Prior knowledge:
Elements: H1 3-9, H2 16-26, E1 32-33, H3 35-44, H4 51-63, E2 68-72, E3 76-80, E4 87-91, E5 96-100, E6 125-128
Parallel strand pairs: 4-6
Antiparallel strand pairs: 1-3, 2-3, 4-5
Helix pairs in contact: 3-4
Amino acid sequence: xxxxEKLRTSGLRPTRQRLALAELLFAQGDRHVTxxxxxxxxxxxxxxxxxxxxxxxxxxFMGARLLREVAIDxxxxxxxxxxxxxxxxxxxxxxxxxxxxxxxLKVLGLxxxxxxxxxxxxxxIVRIAEAG
Length: 132
């Protein structure tokens, strides 16, 4: 499925800016990117967009379930192109997220959610540092 079809299937109109940002996001396979990093990539690729447009587009992509948000300490937000249930290592020295395959981590003994609610997603971030 091409990028325009992916956007249409998700309920988004494939505007020029959405197409350009989606191409940057999804052409490289699964990845984690901040809005600022994507904006820098867009500028380098001569895509004329503001940082505000990048944020708006990323939020639209999240609403369409094309991206998953991963927040670190409430101060840094990454957008993950892999929307499946999976977990992350966070390499603090580089500010980099690395996927942990589901087969390597099991979450057991979940609490019962409050009445009228359900568990939507479980986020696990394992912080790592370089050895030594």
